[in-house]
Design goal:
The protein is α/β, with parallel strands linked by helices and 437 residues long. The protein has twelve helices and 18 strands. Helix 1 (11-20) packs parallel to helix 8 and helix 2 crosses helix 8 (318-334).
C-alpha cells in the first residue's frame, strides 16, 4: 500500500493509523483540530468526562504501544488491580474479581500519550484539515478530498469521523448504498468534576457504582456514579442519570448527589476540594452502522470508532471498542496481500463481533429503564431474568464476578455468561444466600 488516509485523528483514528503504519509506505491523518502535545485544542465535547480504561482496552493499548503504561504512570496516571478497583451494585460492594486491572487517567493524558507515539512513527503525518469527500473510481477508493478542495491520493481510507460522519452521504452521492443504521434512544446525561486527591481512599484507583436488580435499576438505594484516581493528584468523579434524573452543572447539586452515592464517593465529597466546575454531557441515543448488510461496498474503505458504533458511554466501551477494531483491521489486512484493495467485508465481519457484544450488553441493560421503549431483542425477558440473577450472584461470589467482569470489560464475549457451569454456580450461590437469610 503506497498511501492510506485516516479521516479523523480521534483515539480510534490514532489506533487505525498505528495499524496502517505496518503495511503502508505513508499514512496521512486528517484532523481539523490543532491538538497540542498535552491534548489541549480538541473540540470533542466529551473529552473532559471521566474515561476509566477497561481491562481489555488497557491490554490492547499496551499491545499496540508497548511500554506506554509506564509512560502514562510516570506522567501521573494510576494503575489499579485487586482491591484497588471496587465495584458496587445497589450499594453493595461486589466480590473481588481475579485479574482485573484498570488504568486511571484523564482522556487528554491518555490520548496525548497515544498521539505522541503515533507522531513518532516515521511514516505517519498529520495534516490539519478535514475530509470533504471521497474519490471513488473503478469500484474502489482512489483518494480523499480535503476542506480546501485538494485531493490526497490514497489506496485506502478509514472513516474515523465520529458519530457525525458524512460517509453515508458521500457513498449515496457516488451511487453506492449507505449502511443501515440501528438506534436506541436512551436520553442519558452525565457530568464530571475534579477534586484534589490525598490519601482519603488509601490505594483505591477506581470505584464504580450502579443500580441493579434490587432497585429495579433505579437510583433509589444509591446514586449511580464512579471515580478514578488520575494525573495531577486528582479524583475525577462522574455522575449519571436518565431522562428527568440527568445531573446538572451546579456544583452544590453535584456534591449533594455525591453524598447519596456509595462510601468512596461520599468520602471524596466530604473530604476533598472541588477544583473547577462541573462539565455536563448529554447522550441521546446509541447508534450503529451495519456495513455487513450492504450488498456492495467500495474497495479500500473501512470505518472505526463512533463512525461505526457509539454505545451508551456509562459502560465505558468506546475506547476499548476502538482498540478491538484496530485488531480487526490488522487481521483483515494480514488475510491476504491484496486485502486492502478489496471491499472490507473481512474487516466489517470481524468488527461486528466486538460491536455486537458491546451493543448487546449496553442495550439489554438500557431496556431496564422504563423510558427506553425498544427495540427489544428476541428472548429479552429471559436475558433480563438471567442477567439479574448473575448480577446478584456476582456480589457474593468471586468466581461468578470474575466471569461477569470479564464480559463487562470485553475480555470475553457475552455468550460466556451462558456456560452451564457458571449458571449452576450462580444458582448455588443464590440458594445458599437464601438459606442463610
Amino acid at each position: 500500500m503506497k498511501r492510506a488516509v485516516v479521516m479523523g485523528g480521534s483515539y480510534a483514528g490514532l489506533f487505525a493509523a498505528r495499524v496502517l503504519s505496518d503495511v503502508a509506505d505513508e499514512v496521512v491523518v486528517l484532523e481539523p483540530d490543532d491538538i497540542g502535545a498535552d491534548g489541549t485544542g480538541s473540540r470533542a465535547p466529551q473529552r473532559r468526562q471521566l474515561h476509566a480504561l477497561l481491562a481489555q482496552g488497557h491490554r490492547q493499548l499496551e499491545r499496540w504501544f508497548p511500554g506506554i503504561t509506564a509512560e502514562l504512570v510516570a506522567d501521573g496516571a494510576r494503575m489499579g488491580e485487586g482491591g484497588d478497583v471496587r465495584f458496587y451494585v445497589d450499594g453493595r460492594l461486589k466480590a473481588p474479581a481475579d485479574g482485573l486491572r484498570m488504568l486511571g487517567a484523564g482522556r487528554p493524558l491518555l490520548e496525548s500519550g497515544v498521539r505522541r507515539r503515533v507522531a513518532a512513527l516515521p511514516n505517519v503525518r498529520t495534516v490539519r484539515t478535514h475530509a470533504r469527500g471521497l474519490v471513488l473510481d473503478g469500484g474502489r477508493v482512489r483518494g480523499v478530498t480535503t476542506a480546501e478542495g485538494e485531493v490526497v491520493d490514497a489506496g485506502f481510507a478509514v472513516d474515523a469521523m465520529g458519530r457525525s460522519s458524512r460517509l453515508g452521504h458521500w457513498l449515496e452521492e457516488a451511487g453506492w448504498e449507505r449502511a443501515p443504521v440501528a438506534r436506541m434512544r436512551i436520553d442519558l446525561g452525565y457530568a464530571t468534576a475534579s477534586f484534589r486527591r490525598g490519601d482519603e481512599l488509601g490505594t483505591t484507583v477506581v470505584a464504580h457504582s450502579m443500580a441493579g436488580p434490587k432497585s429495579a435499576y433505579q437510583p433509589t438505594l444509591t446514586e449511580p456514579g464512579a471515580l478514578a484516581a488520575v494525573e495531577g493528584d486528582r479524583w475525577s468523579v462522574v455522575l449519571a442519570g436518565y431522562a428527568d434524573h440527568r445531573p446538572v452543572a451546579d456544583p452544590a447539586a453535584f456534591l449533594a448527589r455525591m453524598r447519596r452515592c456509595v462510601e468512596p464517593l461520599r468520602t471524596v465529597a466530604e473530604a476533598c476540594e472541588m477544583t473547577g466546575g462541573v462539565d455536563t454531557f448529554r447522550f441521546t441515543e446509541s447508534v450503529r452502522r451495519d456495513y455487513t448488510r450492504l450488498g456492495r461496498l467500495p474497495g479500500g474503505l473501512v470505518a472505526v470508532g463512533d463512525a461505526l458504533a457509539s454505545v451508551n458511554p456509562v459502560y465505558g466501551h468506546g475506547l476499548t471498542l476502538a482498540a478491538l477494531e484496530a485488531n480487526c483491521l490488522a487481521a483483515h489486512l494480514r488475510s491476504s496481500g491484496t486485502a486492502w484493495r478489496e471491499p472490507g467485508w473481512g474487516y466489517f465481519r470481524r468488527a461486528a463481533v466486538a460491536v455486537d457484544a458491546a451493543w448487546q450488553l449496553s442495550t439489554t441493560a438500557d431496556l431496564a429503564q422504563p423510558h427506553v421503549t425498544g427495540p427489544y431483542p428476541l428472548g429479552y425477558r429471559l436475558l433480563r431474568w438471567a442477567g439479574d440473577r448473575l448480577t446478584e450472584a456476582s456480589v457474593l461470589d468471586s468466581a461468578v464476578n470474575t466471569a461477569y467482569m470479564n464480559v463487562a470489560h470485553l475480555v470475553e464475549h457475552p455468550r460466556a455468561l451462558t456456560r452451564p457451569a457458571l449458571l449452576l454456580r450462580a444458582a448455588r450461590v443464590l440458594l445458599a444466600a437464601g438459606d442463610r437469610a
